Amino acid sequence: KATGTAVDWIQMPGMKPGPDSIGTAAITHGGAGVAARAWGLVGLEPTKVAEILKDRPCWLRDCRRLEILRAFPTPNGGTIELIYTQMYAPTTLAPARDLWTLRYTTYLEDGNLVVCERSLSNTNGGPAMKNAAEFVRADMLPSGYLIRPYEGGVCSIHIVDHLDLEPWRVLEVLRPLYESSAVLAQKMTLGALRYLRRISQETAGENLLRSGQQPAALRALSQRLARGFNEAVNGFADDGWTSLVNDGVDDVTIAINMTPTPSHVGGQLGTDRLCSIGGGILCAKASML
């Protein structure tokens, strides 16, 4: 999938080569689920690249949680991991998705580092895994990263994302969000390449800001803002959200969070002040089609 023709890839519309291009991208048209493939060069060591890509919540805003439940060494020096992942829904009109996957990391005989991941189900020997109440179980078809080292601390990266997001479980008007390989490519596949490029530039000292702000600090702030917004849109009970008014899927929903975490309000001081006056966060969500 990463370098061959196991999938019928077509060039991503709008991707033009040039000096500012982060790489090349391809998507599928038809076939099972949605799939995207990208290739690029970054000035990082292969192990660092793999470490970043495997930590999906640090670069994918839609990833709520990634938990490694078990890890097993393999005879050739690789590692197999059992992983549970939760993904935010992009809208109040659809439930969030979760995934149970196996991830295999190893060095190949040619020196390339490969990370493969796919869904685990009861039919292929996985444990009986119940669906979480607020999630729809998605399916990850074989996906992963192929990382090739070159001299000078540079490596090339092939990324493949292939998912079945159960589009029939959402309203028809929303299905393009779940059936578009181009959406997957922009959010996830190219998003990973962009993040790696930023980290590479920061490591080389190329990304210093005129204001004197540290890029890592601004990146952490933007991640907190995105996470707080995604939490409010999804309104999970285990994040402290309680629905007060819900007139139906097409009307206004009012939810409140009486125990906001520091990430919601920008620090412990803000949390203490809210709690001292008996306050919280009020969220009004309207989904009108």
Automatic annotation (TrEMBL):
A Pfam family the protein falls into: START
Alphabetized UniProt keyword annotations: DNA-binding, Homeobox
GO molecular function annotation: DNA binding; DNA-binding transcription factor activity; lipid binding
SUPFAM superfamilies listed in its UniProt record: Bet v1-like
The START domain, residue ranges: 1-208
Keyword Nucleotide-binding: no
Protein name per Swiss-Prot or TrEMBL: Class III homeodomain-leucine zipper protein 1
Annotated organism of origin: Isoetes engelmannii (Engelmann's quillwort)
